[in-house]
Amino acid sequence: MTSVRKICCIGAGYVGGPTCSVIALKCPEIQVTVIDKSKERIAQWNSQKLPIYEPGLDEVVQKCRGKNLFFSTDTKTAIKEADLIFISVNTPTKTFGNGKGRAADLKYVESAARMIAEVATGDKIVVEKSTVPIRAAESIMNILRANHKPGVSYQILSNPEFLAEGTAIEDLVNADRVLIGGQDSPEGQAAIEELCKIYEHWIPRENILTTNIWSSELSKLAANAFLAQRISSIKFPLSTQICELLDEGAVLHIYDPKVEETQIIQDLTHPTVTNNPENVKSRISIYKNAYSATKNTHAIVLCTEWDEFIELDYTQIYADMMKPAYIFDGRKILNHDRLQRIGFVVQTIGKKLIRSAISRAWGSQTQA
Ligand SMILES: NC(=O)c1ccc[n+]([C@@H]2O[C@H](COP(=O)([O-])OP(=O)(O)OC[C@H]3O[C@@H](n4cnc5c(N)ncnc54)[C@H](O)[C@@H]3O)[C@@H](O)[C@H]2O)c1
Fold it and tell me: What does this protein do (predicted)?
C-alpha cells in the first residue's frame, strides 16, 4: 500500500511510544523502530512494565514488539535505515532568553535534526510530531540543509499530535482527524501522500486533512491556546498565548466590540505577559469591525462570546480570507456545520463536531 518500509521515531515518550505502537499494529508490513537517548526508557519499553500506563497499550505492544515494533538505543542504524522519521522529543518551556517561561525550547528537536543530518545516507521524510513553535520546520530544514550531503534529500512534514494522556490508544485508534502539513511543491505533496498512506491503514481518507506546514503548526498552538484559556482562572492567560503566537512571528488583527484599543494594548504589553512590548505593538493592529479584521488572514480565533460574532456573514468573511481558512471557536458558540459547508476548517475544544470530514474535538485538559 505504501512505499515507506521502515519508520524510525526519535523520542520514546508519551507521544512517540503509543503512536508508533499503533502504527506498528495497523501496518504489519512496516518496520517501526522507536529510539531514545535514555537507555532506561528503552529498557522499560522492552520489559513487562512499560514506562507509561495507557489503557490498551500493553496489549498493542505485546502483539507487535519483536515482530515489526522495536525499541532501541541504536539511533544511528534506525535513522539510517528509515524512509520516514518522526521527531517526537520533548519541547520544554524555555528557561532563558527570548520567550523565557512561555515559549517552547527547541533544543531537543534541533539535536534530533542534527542526528538525522549526521547519519542519513538516502532520501528521508522527516515528520515533526512534537508540539513546536510556528516555523520550527524551517529551523529543522536549515539544520538539514546546512549539513547537506550528496545523494541525500529531505522533505519535512508537520503532523501534530492531539492525543490526551489517559485515552492515548483510543485517541490514536479512533482518531477522527489527522492533520498533515507539507511543502507546496510536487515533492512536498508526494511526501504528504506517503504519510497519508500510512494513516489510511485505519483512518478514512476524508478524516486526513492536508495543508501547508505553517497552518498545521499554527493549528496545534491555537488548540493549546484555547486549552490554556479554558483551564486557567488567572487574568492574563489569553494575552500570554497571544504573545506566544506573536513571538513565533504571527501578525494579529484584533477586533473586540467592547474593549477599548488602549485597554487591549495595555493588556497585551503588561510585564507579566511579555518582556518585549515593542515587538507586541509592532505585530498587532486593532480593527473597527470583524470584516476588516479578518480580511486576508489565515485564521480566525474567536475568544469572546458576543452575539455579534454569531450573526456575522461568514460567507463574505470566508471569501476574503486566505485558504485554507481556519476558524478556532474557543467559545463553542458558532454553527460549525454551516461554517464547514462554507469551506472553513473548524476547530473547537470539548465538543465533537458532527460532520465526518472534520469531526474531532481538539484538545483536552491533559493535552500538550
Ligand atoms: N504528552 C502528551 O499528552 C502530548 C500530547 C500532544 C503533544 N505532545 C507533544 O509531543 C512532544 C513529545 O511529548 P512527550 O509527552 O512524548 O515527551 P516525553 O518527555 O514523554 O518524551 C520525549 C522523549 O524524547 C527523548 N529525547 C529527547 N531528545 C532526544 C534525542 N535527541 N534523541 C533521542 N531521544 C531524545 C527523551 O529522552 C524522552 O524520552 C512534545 O512536544 C509534547 O509537547 C505531548
Answer: Involved in the biosynthesis of glycosaminoglycans; hyaluronan, chondroitin sulfate, and heparan sulfate.
